[in-house]
Amino acid sequence: MKNPLRKVRLLTPGPTPVSTDILLSLAKEVIHHRGDEFKEILVECTNLLKYVFKTENDVFILTSSGTGAMEGAIVNVLSQGDRAIVLNTGAFGRRWKNILDSYGIEVKEIEYEWGDYVKLEDLEKILKEDPNYQAIFCQHTETSTGVINDIKGIKEVAKKYGDIPVIVDAVSSLLGEELFMDDWELDIVVSGSQKGLMLPPGLAFIAVNKKMWKRIESSKLPKFYFSLIHAKNYFERGQTPWTPAVNTIFALKEGLKRIKEYGIENLWARYKKLAQATREGVKAIGLELFAKRPCNVVTSIKVPEGVDGIRIVKDMQKDFGVRIAGGQREYKGKIVRFAHMGYIDEMDVVMGIAGLELTLSKLGYKFEIGNGVRKVLEVFNG
User: Fold this and answer.
1) Among residues 262, 293, 315, which one ends one of the domains?
2) What is the pTM of this model?
3) Confidence of residue 1 (pLDDT cuts 50, 70, 90)
4) In which domain, by residue range, is 139 found?
5) SS3 of 250, please?
């Protein structure tokens, strides 16, 4: 029987928790999306998103998942006969390839073992041999593994070979990791609402370097819903091309105002501390991190020998109300993942590590219980 007194702590890498007051903003009366009131909200949100992306270029709000923004980036930039490089460090790097394959784009995939990160020398080697590629696709943080990639370095390599456009999936990294779209000269960056922005799922964002518009205007891949030309034309009069998720955009406005008030640099420092505490707590239990270059938004942990990783996830939720994520695809049951992005605080990390310790102890893993929580508290008290 479900315990009606059990509090739920959502520590999954998306969706992430949403504060009660942001949820209440969704309950406002629906307004017409072609009126002046919505126009003001849309323009305000767009300007605040420029602050978040660290860009003075165009940012568009899409009613879709982050995957929709990924597809939108592809269909607006490429044409039949184009060639692309995918830097694949996990499930979402693979998603770039899957979408490109579905449009018949020739893909050169540089694939890494899960848990590993992009090596710039690998990209350099490929481009030295053949620089004739029209785009490079990569993740900033790979949510499936907890790895961060050097997107600034990737762009620096691309610039040496004809300034090949670099298109970045920042769905999980936005607000959790330093990201300077303009300073790093990134060409397109996409993200979603349900992670660092602390909102429900349903919105996606695509930020476009002004250099990309000639390419967008000449792109020949089929597109309609995700056409950035439509989006740009409609935004000039303060609208979206199609009916947007009006009330979710209400919530976006409230969330972005708070982010601006708190300061993005403070958010970066906060998530760095939460990540440090999580990782130190995990290591104090005797567990091993999975990512070779861990990011600040999700920690991936190797399941110890003799312990059922699927049971860890199920039992933490059933017994303690702590919801974490397991591994994906071939790593199901082999790793577990803790998020520390979005509306998550120090006590969520403490309770998450406590739930992990209690669950591991119940499943027969031998360690000194309390070591993990103690280490987390030391980090927060330091």
Assistant:
1) 262
2) 0.97
3) low
4) 31-262
5) helix
